[in-house]
Design brief:
The longest helix is centred in the N-terminal third of the chain and has 17 residues. The protein is rod-shaped, with a radius of gyration of 29 Å. It contains one helix and 13 strands; from the N terminus they run αβββββββββββββ. A five-stranded mixed sheet has the order 2-9-8-4-5, with no helix packed on it. It has two domains: about 90 residues, Immunoglobulin-like; about 40 residues, no CATH class.
Length: about 170
């Protein structure tokens, strides 16, 4: 003997309500990302601590740097921090920052801007002088001093198309 169809229909209808009342059918809680600090840095500057603020952070939540997982500290359910090295901000560009929970759900993205390192962050530099000046052809070796604004570590001076070693004071 089979059950009447009405009982099967009622079970199908009320089972989801019963499970929802018992804590079942919980949706996935995704992390949010509302701000990052800093949001702009100069290329060639020193490393820093990136702070991500949002919601739904749990133990094991990570900061993604252009999709790469960073070693991250969860300071609270609303704040994450990660150390950024000088090498990661050596060149100008835009970095996509996200938060990712251990279950791999990710937040929306925010952009970190790495500006040029020249005056005003524009990536330009200004050469205001060189010495000694003039130097006669065939002279013995000498130290060329270039003065100006916006020079960065690792920059070179080109003399007749050849890069020469530099130091910075």
């Amino acid at each position: 003997m089979s059950r009447p169809r009405s009982h099967a229909f009622l079970c199908f209808l009320f089972l989801p309500l019963l499970l929802a009342g018992c804590g079942g059918f919980k949706g996935v809680v995704t992390p949010t990302l509302s701000s990052i600090t800093p949001s702009t840095v100069a290329a060639g500057s020193a490393g820093f601590t990136l702070t991500a603020t949002g919601t739904n952070y749990v133990s094991g939540t990570k900061i993604l740097w252009d999709g790469t997982v960073l070693p991250t500290t969860v300071t609270s359910s609303t704040q994450l921090t990660a150390s950024i090295t000088a090498a990661q901000i050596a060149t100008a560009g835009t970095i996509t920052i996200r938060a990712m929970k251990p279950d791999t759900t990710t937040s929306g993205a925010l952009q970190l801007t790495i500006t040029g390192s020249g005056p005003g962050g524009g990536g330009s530099f200004s050469l205001t002088g060189i010495s000694p000046q003039p130097v006669a052809a065939g002279s013995p070796s000498f130290t060329l001093t270039a003065t100006g604004l916006g020079f960065v570590t690792g920059a070179t001076i080109n003399l007749n198309g050849t890069a020469i070693a530099t130091t910075f004071d």
